[in-house]
Amino acid sequence: MGRKTKCTAEENINTMDMNGELLLTIMSSLVHQEVESLSPNVKLGLKHLKNDLVLDLHKSIDKRTILESNIGEQKNISKRMARLRKK
């Protein structure tokens, strides 16, 4: 049965008898199942977060490329207008 303790801190479970041992075994099993179900959910959440961050990064790069392209076009237009004014 393992280590014997008089009771747990909050639940007041007497582990000196079979009922207490059974209750601790059941609680341990429930906690184990909870941990096992949380792990895939956390992994899935992190995967979605990573995908969202990658998409945001691509959007930012696309916006920057468009902005840089527009700035380049504006400079070319300004140069053409300056040449036309000189003529």
Describe the structure.
- With 87 residues, the protein is mainly alpha-helical.
- It is built from one helix and no strands.
- It has one helix at 18-86.
- The protein starts with 17 loop residues before the first helix and ends with a helix.
Q: Alpha-carbon distance between the termini? A: 100 Å
Strand content: under 5%
**Helical proportion, percent range:** over 70%
Number of strands: 0
Order of helices and strands: H
Discrete helix count: 1
Content-based structural category: mainly alpha
Runs with pLDDT <50, length 5+? 1-7
List keywords for this structure.
single chain; 87 residues; mainly alpha; disordered N terminus
Compile the SSE list and pairings:
Elements: H1 18-86
Quick synopsis:
With 87 residues, the chain is mainly α.
